Amino acid sequence: MKILVINGPNLSRLDIRDSSIYGDLNYAELKSMIGIAATQHGFEADVRQSDDEATIIGWLHEAADNNLPVIINPAAFTHYSYAIRDAAELVKKPLIEVHLSNPLSREEFRHTSVISGVANGTIGGFGPNSYVLAIIAMANLLSK
Ligand code: DQA
């Protein structure tokens, strides 16, 4: 089964972001790790990244129209994009929110997620492994 993995703003620049917060992998390495973990759990991962809110909304519409499960790291949009939340709500298959860092242990503005309320669950704080855990959780949800 195909799974859409959506990454929000600045995640393509993991090479120059703080590795003590976001882990040691660059975006290409993260993408490949997600692809391998997805294959191991019977998924074909379509891993995308955009800095643009409208593009991410379009991808969520695509997931809704094509009945695709979604793993999404909305990055900074997590904390304020009601438009992404409304689009995420349209997805009929499970949608899991992931974060590399643990936003709840960081600055106060990161403590709010406007996405969590429309996600099946949220996984954060495990670096790139957050995505692997999300894939395992997705396989579990879809097997029910
Ligand atoms: C992030 C956490 C967000 O607060 C931040 O804006 C990001 C990445 C994470 O994966 O830890 O860009 O979503």
TrEMBL record:
Pathway annotation from the record: Metabolic intermediate biosynthesis; chorismate biosynthesis; chorismate from D-erythrose 4-phosphate and phosphoenolpyruvate: step 3/7
CDD domains reported in the protein's UniProt record: DHQase_II
Amino-acid positions noted as binding substrate in the UniProt annotation, renumbered to this chain: N73, H79, D86, L100, S101, R110
Active site: Y22, H99
Record-level Gene Ontology MF annotations: 3-dehydroquinate dehydratase activity
Site (Transition state stabilizer): R17
EC number(s) on file: 4.2.1.10
Swiss-Prot/TrEMBL keywords: Amino-acid biosynthesis, Aromatic amino acid biosynthesis, Lyase
Reaction catalysis annotation: 3-dehydroquinate = 3-dehydroshikimate + H2O
Alphabetical list of Pfam families matching this protein: DHquinase_II
Transmembrane segments: none
UniProt GO BP: amino acid biosynthetic process; aromatic amino acid family biosynthetic process; chorismate biosynthetic process; quinate catabolic process
Subunit architecture: Homododecamer.
Task performed by this protein: Catalyzes a trans-dehydration via an enolate intermediate.
Family statement: Belongs to the type-II 3-dehydroquinase family.
Name of the protein in question: 3-dehydroquinate dehydratase
